[in-house]
Amino acid sequence: MAWNEPGNQGKDPWGNRGGKDQGPPDLDEVFRKFTSRFGGGGNGGGSGNLSKMGVALVLVGAVIVWGLSGLYKVEEAERGVVLQFGQYHDLVGPGLKWKPTFVQTVYPINIQRVNRLNASGVMLTQDENVVTVQMEVQYRIEDPRKYLFSVTNPDQSLSEALDSALRYVVGHTTMDNILTVGREQVRSDTWAELDGIIEPYDMGIRVVDVAFKEARPPEEVKPAFDDAIAAQEDEERYVQEATAYTRQVEPQARGRAERMLREASAYKERVVLEAEGEVARFTSLLPQYEAAPEVTRERLYLETMEQVYSSTSKVMVDNKEGGSMFYLPLDKIIQGQSQNTQMAPAQQQSAPNRSVRTDTTNDRAGRSTTRQGRN
Questions:
Q1: Which residues partner with 119 through β-bridges?
Q2: Cβ-contact 207, 195 below 8 angstroms
Q3: Quick one: pLDDT at residue 179?
Q4: Residue 180 and residue 186 in contact, taking contact as beta carbons nearer than 8 Å
Q5: Do residues 146 and 111 lie in contact, with contact meaning Cβ atoms separated by under 8 Å?
Q6: Domain boundary among 200, 217, 234
Q7: Which structural domain, as residue segments, surrounds residue 334?
Q8: Distance between CA 92 and CA 352 in Å, rounded?
Q9: Sign of CA pseudo-dihedral 152, 153, 154, 159
Q10: What is the distance of C-alpha 372 from the center of its chain?
Q11: Per DSSP, what are the bridge partners of residue 123?
Q12: Dihedrals φ, ψ of 274, to 5°?
């Protein structure tokens, strides 16, 4: 049976009996009862003092919590940007700090960390080829205030500036340079173009480095470009090998040329000196020849024959009286002596080999003259 049906004598939810008054309770009465119970149920003066003491304790606890909530720490590599009621107020250094909660807000910014952003995409080159390029920029925050308030999103702005600079540089470079020898030039040009783009925005960012990570042709034509790159690498290798060979051969050729020039100069000097010596010798012999022609002629003949026979191992003897010519096989004799010398090395060391040359000539009177010499 419901509480408001006829015949129900129980209590209704609002504290009425008999169901006569069905309205909601008085809120002032409920609050008054709650306050009296909180005060301990004594007389009116005592409950008022206790209520004031409780409120004071609550306020003191709230102040303590509020004060402790304002403590914060700024790391060594960070700088804190302080906002007061949403506006820039101050820039604090590292250490333990305090701020009034709900009045100031602190944003710590790391100024020593090197941040990285990547930019990549399919781009059109100057020679109307398509290439996929990926580049990374490394930057550091120098001015935290400008980094937070100069632009809405500095990281996104930097990424878009890098993409714009990269597309501009790739659009003014041929594909061969991008894929092979021009990568460093593309990197430096992109860095310079990026600095020029972000400078007017004054974002408090300094670009530390720009790295060229990857450049490749589209997958459909990649095998052909791989062959072209391999051919260019072979060309560079051949050029380097030829240069190394040139550097190796050229000094040798210069040395041989210098040696030949010096030998020719020495030969020239030797021939000139020998000619001058012959002239001097002839000049000195001329008075002797004029004084005794026959004797001088005979002496010159003998000296000439001695010079000729000194380089041969055979001696020819012209016997005008007998009418026959014979020779002594000194080469065989010397060979036999050398074999005997090898069999007796001690004798070879004690006595040097001596060979006797016998020259027999006939003077005009038909007399035989024998000369002995030592080789």
A1: 135
A2: yes
A3: 80
A4: no
A5: no
A6: 217
A7: 313-374
A8: 105
A9: negative
A10: 80
A11: 131
A12: -65, -40
